[in-house]
Amino acid sequence: MKTSHHLTVPPGLTSEDFLQLKSAITEFHTYDLSSAQCSSLLAQYIHAPLDVVWSVIRRFDKPQIYKHFIKSCTMEEGSTMVEGCTRDVIVISGLPAATSTERLDLLDDERHVMAFTIIGGEHRLRNYRAVTTLHEIKAEGSLPSKTIVLESYVVDVPEGNTEEDTRFFADTVVKLNLQKMASVTETIARGGGDAAAAESLRFRCSLFFQSKKSQVCELYLQLSAVEEVD
């Protein structure tokens, strides 16, 4: 069964921009689904140039720059960011997950596409695959351009859980990461590279994270409840 992301406007995207990006959605964000999987597509507008956003997203070795809940990320010494390389992610304490081993499937600097698959670790997101694409929106006159980030995924539905519960949990995590990505890259675009701006960004991200951490923990616990009982 094919996904139908190209038929429905995803959360965070206008109908007008959806029509312009429909071909890209069809090309990069379409998956073959089994009956035991679910998928979703989300969007985020960022008030920063595409090259700034891409410089952050393409750092497969440092996802913690724009992703919540990551304590550290390491790659094998001497490895380079090429398709097929892997990273080992350690999740922060307080979440019912510990580690995640992830493989870089695609890194296209010309078309601004990145894809990865979770291939191991201690977590519930089995066979999770994600694709992120960037799209520039030219502004009129002297106004700065904007960037649209599209991120989609496909993942197994854990035994005993519903497709809706699984999608709701994964969507929540992706949305939080997209929001942090917007905050980080917009600060960079404004020239917030000095120490004061960096500290302000860390503080705001910390407050945002603390307000959302309990929500994600609760969702994850609900997703894990059936397996815990078994």
Automatic annotation (TrEMBL):
GO MF annotations, alphabetized: abscisic acid binding; protein phosphatase inhibitor activity; signaling receptor activity
Q: Which InterPro entries match?
A: Plant_def-hormone_signal (IPR050279), Polyketide_cyclase/dehydratase (IPR019587), START-like_dom_sf (IPR023393)
Q: Does the keyword Membrane apply?
A: no
Where does this protein reside within or beyond the cell? Cytoplasm; Nucleus
Q: Which GO terms describe its biological process?
A: abscisic acid-activated signaling pathway
User: What is a single Pfam family found in this protein's UniProt entry?
Assistant: Polyketide_cyc2
Q: Which domain of life is it from?
A: Eukaryota
Q: What are the entry keywords?
A: Abscisic acid signaling pathway, Cytoplasm, Nucleus, Protein phosphatase inhibitor, Receptor
Family affiliation: Belongs to the PYR/PYL/RCAR abscisic acid intracellular receptor family.
Name of protein: Uncharacterized protein
**Source organism of this protein record:** Lactuca saligna
